[in-house]
Amino acid sequence: MFPLRFDVNGETVEVPVTTVLNGGYAGRSQEDVAAHVAELAELGVPAPTRTPCLYPVAPYLAMQTEQVPVQHDRTSGEAEWALVVAGPEERDVLLTVACDHTDRALEVHGVAWSKQAGPDVLGGRAWRLVDVADRVDELTLTAWAGGRQIQRGTLAELLPPQYWLDELRQRGLLRPGTVLLSGTIPMDAEVDQFADSWRVELGDPQTGDTLSCEYRLDRMPEPVA
């Protein structure tokens, strides 16, 4: 098991991670998703057989880190929120900020492969989902690549946490140790996503509180082969 630790209103909650799932093509408007799938297909990214998608990745890929090693310069993050099932009760479901770092060169050969090639970076603080459930669509999601804002939106643009909770329950995965990332919102095409750093913030306009995760990329040496 790979433990994550969260500050939840001053309380430290440790979660031994057993299952990690990445949502994909998870926009609230599936008509817009279909258009996006068509655009990606023109770039060589294989189209899914259904949307939204759910990609299992290795549990050790859920990280709380400030540095991400990469093999080349065609990788980038994605602003997301994450559900973390910390215990058996409803109040044990945590909501935090996340960045799904993805290998874009590998993505054209298979989205699932590209998800497995990079980590899911999570923030060190979290909210209990029950505490923000009444205003979850108002929460904001913002990302910066290399210091430039590349994504900005609200959770209303994505399928809601309850959708994914129902999906997990149906699949027998709503259990302690499960982490699920939401899928992402559109990027600003004018901003270079292949930057040397990423920062993502999940904000609550009602309280002014913000959860964040931030990391730099570390280019690994060339292989000797």
TrEMBL record:
<protein>
    <submittedName>
        <fullName>2-keto-4-pentenoate hydratase/2-oxohepta-3-ene-1,7-dioic acid hydratase in catechol pathway</fullName>
    </submittedName>
</protein>
<dbReference type="Pfam" id="PF11010">
    <property type="entry name" value="DUF2848"/>
</dbReference>
<dbReference type="InterPro" id="IPR021269">
    <property type="entry name" value="DUF2848"/>
</dbReference>
<dbReference type="GO" id="GO:0003824">
    <property type="term" value="F:catalytic activity"/>
</dbReference>
<dbReference type="InterPro" id="IPR036663">
    <property type="entry name" value="Fumarylacetoacetase_C_sf"/>
</dbReference>
